[in-house]
Design goal:
The complex is a heterodimer of chains A (100) and B (514).
Chain A: H1 2-24, H2 28-53, H3 57-87
Helix pairs in contact in A: 1-2, 2-3
Chain B: H1 7-28, H2 36-59, H3 78-101, H4 108-127, H5 131-149, H6 156-187, H7 192-200, H8 207-225, H9 234-240, H10 243-272, H11 277-296, H12 301-321, H13 327-358, H14 369-372, H15 374-388, H16 394-408, H17 416-442, H18 456-474, H19 477-486
Classes of the chains: A mainly alpha (100), B mainly alpha (514).
Chain lengths: 100, 514
């Protein structure tokens, strides 16, 4: 139990870093990295709990979540590549044609 | 024992096989990109067979009543079937209208395949009883829609919409994984039924973690549902995405978010014995008010519809907020979810029909539409009136049930009737912009009043929607009955104060283990 708290704290710190990156950075690829950090913080949490409970369900879940995140990132990168072709730029400040 | 003939399994099989077969057929075809009609027909047929199967299972009484929590990952219950029917209707309307919308656009095979895969995800969300399954289904629903939102590759608006939608969607699923991690950490299981049971007898020190998990669930699902603090991406995404996909997002994925929320949040709150209903009620009032106020100042029709769908999420949330106090409230929510699925997709498809023929989304182009595109205009008017809740239409009855439940709950919670008042005032407010569009279509004359040919498949879909809205407005009993059978019966669980959960929630016997 004493070890668990370090893992949970680390994961909370990672979430904070991820949210910071998502809010402050304006480069689409950096934002994608921030999203990945948040997703992996959640996975770390799952694995730490799974280890602590000595129950494999959490690790199985983490595997599922990693596979899904990979698919998600592939789609996201695809969208960003199209954006680069259209704008020659991946700065999300540029993507402001819709307002209101 | 594994039961192979269970609704979710068959739905996955049919739609999955057809969804994966369409790109393969496309790969073997000589002339590529020109087979829109063929793929549209195949996808439409698959969806019709699927919905027919779901309805057949319900009518034959082989589906278990209300919400069941099984030991497996999927259950075959009426709650799931209700959502499956609502969501498949949306997919069918979108597929059929894409017959016209996708004409001359590239990659029709991938488009229909993605719609089918996303439909599987939506349906499985409603049936899932395990958080692992819920997350997988959630992503199966979301990932194809990111690609669909970006489908017009040359269109910067579509791409911008897709980037916003993707960033918020990915954030919401990361938050969900985090929430599920916390639930797993404090209960040691990912099965929804067992974790709710474990939550009900949680150690005192762990209750804040449970609350945090529920809060994160609300945030994660709230992004998809378009609840107010999490709604900022929604108008951009719905406006920028291809308009038929706007219908899929607004009517389909949003409703699937509600299915997930009903499965997880409502029961979780019972287990934790916290009075979160006030919070949800406040969110509901803010959601509908901001949605309606936002819609008032818009110039683009899909954007008005997007804001109006935020407002409608607020009405549906009334029922969820009042769930502990009356069964009628949840019935109203489910009823409104089904109605809203049809009304909103009819609205978006009418906008898509206008966009396909007049190449514009601007409200100014709708002047004189009553004479230029008579069927589209009348269907659009009816769907707008139904959204506003004008009496003989189906939207009126679901709002009546919802607001009636809010007033009835006044004997238990003092703020219940205020929700009804807020809802009625908002409906009046929303009539402001709905009537404005109708006025533009019928009362004003545009520069060009020549009649244009209406896209045939879209007209067929709109006629179906009109029949649905008027028909179930006049004869609303069957859907209301179905909705009231499908709700999780919460009032059996004693409201806040004591733990009487164990005799209700997971008591039902195991249904399917596959």
């Amino acid at each position: 139990m004493t070890e668990l708290i370090y893992y949970v704290l680390l994961s909370v710190v990672l979430v904070a870093i991820g949210i910071y990156g998502l809010v402050v950075k304006r480069n689409a690829v950096r934002m994608l990295f921030a999203l990945e950090i948040i997703a992996n913080a959640a996975n770390l949490n799952l694995i730490a709990f799974s280890r602590n409970l000595s129950n494999a369900q959490g690790q199985v879940f983490a595997l599922f979540s990693i596979a899904i995140a990979a698919a998600e990132v592939a789609v996201g990168l695809g969208i960003i590549i199209i954006a680069y072709r259209l704008y020659k730029e991946i700065d999300v400040e540029e993507f402001k044609s819709m307002r209101g | 024992m594994a039961d192979l003939i269970s609704t979710p399994l068959i739905v996955t099989l049919i739609l999955g096989v057809v969804g994966l077969a369409i790109p393969i057929i496309d790969a073997f075809k000589k002339e590529r990109g020109s087979n829109n009609r063929l793929y549209s027909g195949i996808a439409f047929g698959a969806l019709i067979i699927t919905i027919g199967f779901v309805i057949f299972r319900v009518l034959s009484g082989e589906v278990m009543p209300a919400v069941l929590f099984s030991k497996g990952v999927l259950t075959d219950d009426l709650f799931g079937s209700f959502f499956a029917i609502a969501l498949l209707i949306v997919s069918i309307m979108v597929t059929a209208s894409s017959w016209n919308y996708m004409k001359g656009r590239i990659n029709p095979a991938a488009y229909y395949s993605l719609i089918l895969l996303s439909s599987i995800g939506m349906v499985l969300i409603a049936y899932s009883t395990d958080l692992v399954m819920l997350l997988v289904a959630w992503e199966l629903m979301s990932i194809p829609t990111y690609a669909l939102a970006a489908f017009s590759k040359r269109d910067p608006i579509s791409n911008e919409a897709a980037i916003k939608y993707f960033m918020f969607g990915a954030l919401s699923s990361a938050i969900l994984v985090f929430a599920i991690g916390l639930v797993y950490g404090i209960t040691g299981t990912t099965n929804i039924g067992s974790s709710i049971q474990a939550m009900a007898s949680l150690q005192k020190g762990l209750v804040p973690v449970g609350l945090l998990a529920i809060g994160l669930f609300i945030a994660g699902f709230g992004f998809k549902m378009g609840l107010v603090p999490f709604h900022m991406w929604l108008p951009d995404a719905y406006e920028g995405a291809p308009t038929t996909i706007g219908a899929l997002l607004a009517a389909g994925t949003k409703k699937a978010g509600f299915a997930a929320a009903l499965r997880v949040i409502v029961l979780g709150m019972f287990a934790l014995n916290v009075d979160w209903t006030v919070t949800l009620a406040i969110v509901a009032v803010f959601t509908m008010t901001l949605g309606n106020l936002g819609a008032l100042i818009q110039k683009s029709v899909p954007r008005i519809l997007a804001y109006s769908s935020i407002a409608q999420a607020g009405y549906i949330l009334i029922g969820i907020a009042l769930a502990p106090y009356s069964n009628q409230a949840l019935t109203g929510s489910l009823f409104h979810i089904l109605n809203h699925a049809v009304m909103k997709s009819a609205g978006f498809i009418a906008a898509a029909a206008v966009a396909a023929t007049l190449a514009s989304y601007s409200l100014e182009k709708y002047r004189g539409l009553g004479r230029r595109m008579p069927i589209t205009a009348i269907a659009f008017s009816i769907s707008l009136l139904a959204l506003a809740g004008v009496p003989p239409l189906n939207g009126f009855w679901s709002k009546l049930v919802l607001f009636g439940a809010a007033i009835n709950s006044g004997s238990v919670v003092a703020w219940g009737p205020y929700l009804a008042i807020a809802g009625v005032l908002n409906s009046a407010l929303s009539l402001g912009y709905y009537a404005w569009i109708i006025r533009k279509m019928y009362m004003e004359e545009g520069p060009d009043m020549s009649k244009v040919k209406e896209p045939r498949a879209m007209v067929a879909v709109l006629v179906f929607a009109m029949v649905f809205m008027v028909g179930f407005g006049v004869w609303h009993a069957p859907i209301l009955q179905f909705a009231s059978k499908a709700v999780p019966h919460l009032s059996n669980i004693v409201p806040t104060g004591s733990n009487h959960l164990s005799n209700i929630v997971p008591s039902s016997k195991t249904l399917h283990d596959f």
